[in-house]
Design a protein that fits this description.
It is a single chain. This protein has 158 residues and is mainly α. It has a two-stranded antiparallel ribbon.
């Protein structure tokens, strides 16, 4: 490579839970640089999760982390051109990409839900993902199926 590798920026932990992953999630949730609005949506969603949860031993933050880990894919297919044909080759995903994909899927499928506010949508998707259901978990299952179907081309890995 010609240029230096970009340095990883250190994120400040969020004010309520003191967790960097929450800040990373809120940065992806944010629109037009409105971080305080994004934090309010996230905290309201976790308050709704706190009210709707069934088991008392887990906090809303732990439920959210479980939901995020249930959405994380472990393999994905990448296109590779060999000769004249393009093959979908299954590949392992590095850990930081797993997290970012899970965050993006959870937010995008929350936005597509039909509840009134974004906080309610996000809470609904988090609760569904924590129970291994919902659109974001279905997306992960579809990605895994696609990788499994193309397992025959794994010898073309680069």
């Amino acid at each position: 490579m010609r240029k230096r590798k970009a340095k990883k920026r250190v994120l400040l932990p969020d004010p309520r839970f003191n967790d960097q992953l929450v800040t990373r999630f809120v940065n992806n949730l944010m629109w037009d640089g409105k971080k305080s609005v994004a934090f309010k949506v996230f905290y309201d969603a976790l308050d709704i999760v706190e009210q709707k949860k069934q088991n008392d031993e887990k906090t809303s933050l732990e439920i959210w982390k479980d939901a995020l880990s249930n959405v994380m894919p472990h393999v994905e297919v990448r296109s590779r051109r060999v000769g004249g044909a393009t093959f979908q080759i299954p590949m392992q995903i590095r850990p930081d990409r797993k997290v970012s994909i899970a965050i993006k899927w959870l937010i995008s499928y929350s936005r597509k839900r039909n509840e009134k506010s974004m906080a309610q949508r996000l809470a609904g998707e988090v609760l569904a993902a924590a129970k291994e259901e919902g659109a974001a978990v279905k997306k992960r299952i579809d990605v895994h199926k696609m990788a499994d179907a193309n397992k025959a081309f794994s010898h073309l890995r680069f």
